[in-house]
Amino acid sequence: MRQVHICEVGPRDGLQNAHHLMPTEAKKRWIRALAEAGLEEIEVGSFVPPKLIPAMADTAEIVQHALTIPGIRVVALAPNVKGFQRAVEAGAHKVTFPVSASRKHSESNVRMTPEQMIGQVKACVELRDASGKPTLIEGAVSTAFGCTMQGEVPEDDVVKFATMLAEAGCDCVALADTVGYANPAQIRRVFRRVRAAIGAKLEAAHLHNTRGLGLANALAAYEEGVRHFDSSMGGLGGCPFAPGASGNVITEDLVFMFESMGVPTGIDLDKLMEARKLMVAAIPDEPVYGHMALAGVPKGFRAAA
Amino acid sequence: MRQVHICEVGPRDGLQNAHHLMPTEAKKRWIRALAEAGLEEIEVGSFVPPKLIPAMADTAEIVQHALTIPGIRVVALAPNVKGFQRAVEAGAHKVTFPVSASRKHSESNVRMTPEQMIGQVKACVELRDASGKPTLIEGAVSTAFGCTMQGEVPEDDVVKFATMLAEAGCDCVALADTVGYANPAQIRRVFRRVRAAIGAKLEAAHLHNTRGLGLANALAAYEEGVRHFDSSMGGLGGCPFAPGASGNVITEDLVFMFESMGVPTGIDLDKLMEARKLMVAAIPDEPVYGHMALAGVPKGFRAAA
Questions:
Q1: Exposed/middle/buried for B68, CB within 10 Å: 0-12, 13-18, 19+?
Q2: Beta A94-100 vs A202-206: how paired, if at all?
Q3: For chain B, how many helices (H) and strands (E)?
């Protein structure tokens, strides 16, 4: 019934970049409310060193709690083999690896070249295959549309790294506009090129709304055949390079766009607003964004059948 | 060189719906700065009864000032024959008439049915033709994508009224999402239908950002061949039905979207930000919106050639 699949990344990408810590119990309630609203895939945390990112210190506990919620796929981010092992141990259904197409960003973010990072992903695929576990592995090409350090990121590099991730055995590959640099023409061009290279292994668009183009870029990706989107409730997280700008594309607005277009998301907007209230109550001083929360649905609005 | 044409409607649609009055001299400086940024068409005011909308009381003076700025087309709104006559007297290059496709909105907004309103437009075309003056006349089908009073607006009505406006002798016809109800699929469908009915007389998309879809809708319209867009600096004006939501699609973000896609607008983003500063200084307590103003352009950004 769902024609697009939305993965809520607020508990990971949002909270990881937020100014305020959400208590563990509040995270659990929020994730449960997200699932009740119909989100079938939730990126609940990140297996990074807690000293580096205290907001993610409770990820193992959050994964284990999320596994008790029926019907959702529990996703966690890992930056290396060690993080992957912790994610598998906790029971994550899917692990996503960020692989920067920008060399500068890669070295700053994970202290590895993109090629070294892809080596880590390949090692994890081998570990997974040897273990016989069904953990899904996603390779996410980050800074795929530009980088705050390097500026332009060559499209050839994006195609190359996406291809290497597919060849390394990733179950799926995502393209991420980590810093909100993408424009709709570029989205169409790069997704088309990567799809030509790796076919259906190209799955998700991970978009940010830093420059306001989040939904326009999502529309362009949709029209290029993309059916999996990452987004974050309330556009949580912002961007350290753009004070006052929202972070990921906003879940509520993305769901509204698709539903109003007649494209079913499987997500209930009213219940989504309930989940938003829980989130806001848990981090009341955090800036949140979103037009739907302010304006509500149009008179006579019908969700997609 | 310009591949899209943007008409700044902030001084009219924005200020008409703003909570704060902008002084006449500040309006003049702002309009001059907009022209210096490269805006070739500016809707500077509305010839409505000053008692109804005090913010528009100085429109004749503003039109006359704007006429002294070289290279811009000066647009004014008129709701009837009397307003048209005042606009022509002031010297406006172009007059736009709002014709609600929603019967409820039409009766509430101009106390006429859409058909009666089109009769007024036809009378103005005849006056113009008899006078031999070159004043351009635009018929704008408002609430073309939905109405806060009526809810859904039948697409057949939009096609019908657009056709009647073209037949009444309008030089161009616009479709307006007056209350921010449109979605990209609907934009494509309705623009396609109206273009099939009236061809190249269909010109501008007037979009609001109330539900955050302003840029996505602009993208959809662009991809349907629309090359004329109305927008408002800072998303000025908001919406009385959606507190906290921006008004028109935001000029700065629209320009950025097109320029980043390689579509020249003829507008200089740095100078646009200067014009924004003047606007903010003139109505400092008015809520303004826009991602570009917060985030700036991407590193290595190049405007379209």
A1: exposed
A2: unpaired
A3: 12, 8
Q: ipTM of the assembly?
A: 0.96
> For the segment B24-68, what is each residue's pLDDT rounded down to a tens digit?
999 999 999 999 999 999 999 999 999 999 999 999 999 999 999
pLDDT of residue A42: 98
State the catalytic residues of A: 239
Q: Where are the domains of chain B?
A: 5-295
Chain A residues touching residue B180 (CB < 8 angstroms): 295
Rounded Cα gap, residues A221 and A144, in angstroms: 14
Q: What is the pLDDT of residues B120-164, one digit of tens each?
A: 999 999 999 999 999 999 999 999 999 999 999 999 999 999 999
Dihedral sign computed on CA atoms, order A251, A22, A40, A193 = positive
Indicate which residue of B7, B124, B147, B239 is catalytic.
B239
Using the 8-state DSSP alphabet, how is residue B149 labeled?
T
Separation CA A178–CA A25 (nearest Å): 28
User: Among candidates B271, B272, B278, B279, which has minimal Cα distance to B254?
Assistant: B272
Among residues 164-193 of chain B, which lie with CB inside 8 Å of chain A? 179-181, 183-186
Give the count of beta carbons closer than 10 Å to the beta carbon of residue B222: 22
Q: Distance (Å, rounded) from C-alpha A172 to C-alpha A194? A: 12
Structure tokens at B203: 């010109």
- Which fold, B5-295? TIM Barrel (3.20.20)
